[in-house]
Amino acid sequence: MTALSLRGIEKSFSGNAILKGVSLDAGPGEFIALVGPSGCGKSTLLRILAGLESADAGEIMLGDRDLSSVPAADRNIAMVFQSYALYPHLTAAQNIAVPLVMRRLTGAQRLPLVGPLMPGQRKAITEIKRDVREMAVSLKIDHLLDRKPGQMSGGQRQRVALGRAMVRRPAVFLMDEPLSNLDANLRVHARGEIVELHRRAGVPTLYVTHDQAEALSMADRVAVMIGGSLLQLASPQVIYDDPAHVEVARFIGQPRINLFQSVVGADGRITLGDVSLGLSRETVSAGAPVTIGIRPEFVRVHRSGQQGLPARIERLEFLGSEIIAYCRLDAIGEPVVAKLSPAEGAGLAAAMPVRLDFDADRLFVFAEDGHRLRPELMGAAAPLETAHG
Amino acid sequence: MNAQAFTFGRAVRLSILIFGAVIFLAPYIFMISTAGKAQSDIFSSSLSLVPQHWSYVANFTKALTRVSMTTLLWNGVVVCVLIFVFQVIIAIPCAYAMAKLKFRAARLMMVLVMLGLLVPIHATALPLYVAFDRMSVLNSYFALVAPFTISVFGIFLFLQFFRAMPDDLIHAARLDGMSETGIIARVIVPNAWPAITAFAIFSVVAHWNDLYWPLIVVSNQAYATPPLGLLYFRAAEAGDDYGALMAATLIITTPLVAAFLLAQKRFVEGITMTGLKG
Known about the structure:
The complex is a heterodimer.
Chain A: E1 4-13, E2 16-26, E3 31-35, H1 42-50, E4 57-62, E5 65-66, E6 77-80, H2 92-104, H3 107-110, H4 121-138, H5 154-166, E7 172-176, H6 184-201, E8 205-209, H7 212-218, E9 221-226, E10 229-234, H8 236-241, H9 246-251, E11 258-263, E12 269-272, E13 275-278, E14 289-294, E15 299-302, E16 309-318, E17 323-329, E18 335-340, H10 342-345, E19 353-358, E20 364-366, E21 372-373
Helix pairs in contact in A: 2-4, 2-5
Chain B: H1 8-34, H2 39-42, H3 56-66, H4 69-100, H5 106-118, H6 121-134, H7 141-145, H8 152-163, H9 167-175, H10 180-191, H11 193-208, H12 212-217, H13 226-238, H14 242-274
Helix pairs in contact in B: 3-14, 4-8, 4-11, 5-8, 8-11, 11-14, 13-14
């Protein structure tokens, strides 16, 4: 069942294609993180969904309602902005009340001086005040209700912005990097709170971020957008362990995945050090360029022995629970990053010659266009494997 | 001020500023002084700031009785308030649209505003006068107010101010369910007070002191604005009675000086925020 569905959204600004046909479905109550480098179109997608920009092509369905031509005010979509966009002249309580005032009061009831004379106005305002207070209590900001945004800290403003977005019980919840203006400690704390609020509200949420840690830790599914295309939409585990595209593998993971350029051998196999992988001849022909990827945690560093490729350690980073070793392969001069446990890394030093070898079943192979190729492991029978996605 | 801060450099700076202030204030001070002098005092060969015979009461009585000062001041207030209100009502939505909405004619509008800034009132005075004459609306508040209701300067000033307002604020307002009119009334105007105050001073000062346009369209004393009234006063009543004339001028300039002193802080704030220099 899908609650929210985007179909083939396209957008270009003065000839530059920003979104190249993005499709995405969100289930009811699902938390989807849109992640990608800056300029990949993720914020534009959010703005189109909110109705702040119009798409050149494509449709937006909320349930069975087509939203494409509905103005922003009538979409019942709430958004939390990176800058929070609180009204500077209103107190926190008034800020949170705005969406309710705009929806529950008629135009005449909102007028100054005349409004209080309209029937039903007093009752509606009492209800609004009650709802605002309830919202504030649930966000633990009820002591701030009389303050203006200028008198609040970043974290407090962010809560008021969340309150303003949630108080009217929207059908969809959009967040545009809501944590990027908070300091690091608060950010980690706020992640958990947003997930909790999302669970309570139970509406589909699209969360835009450029921080992969946020995306992986918070979302039910992660959508990786690169260059205006949605390359993969999957659970955080799948995104990390089974990337469908070389750009997804490159973007997700810290430190970055190691990538090597290679070509398919005459026998249809590719080799990296001691590892040799067979590729189905249906998908690639001999001599075709491919990219091989291996995550740093699956690179093993040996100080002795004949196993693996000779390399030299250039730099070591001690991070407490792990050690990052920056190495360079002797043969081809390519850099390789290895993530080691402190035990594995003990005794290593810069400029030390080492041998690197790789976990064969952790290697990713990508075709020239970036799509994933599924290799047959050494000696395995040859089931037909095709490029994924 | 403590003695430590009073260095030589500071003394030089202050002296220069004081010198400048004295030069700028001298005519006004001389006016205050003349307003209290008797006729013989004014035309004496010696120059003194302090009147020898205090004639403030006599001069002010003349200024207040020989010309209907209340009508003049009232006309000034009506004309300035009407002009300012219409200017703001027209300029704010216009500047908002140009700053924050995307529409095809936006660039053309900008060109028109710039063009409007370049054309002085003196160039359009004659056609306007002929048109008002044909419409038989000379000698009316309409003739005094109408040509100034659209202020390109106002549009330009608000435009600069609104451009600095974050787009997200407008987006949030739209998502909260506001119409474009609602955004102007509930978000733009409440946050634009510094700019509105600054513009108020520009507008009111210009139109309170304007002699050129009232002189063209008003020949009936009942619609005379303060500067025009002053002209009549000099021509018809005072002759060479400069004491009374200066007293009348003092009365007419006082409201503006008082208003500026009261709004000074906000005024400076507004100008700094718009990035315009006074």
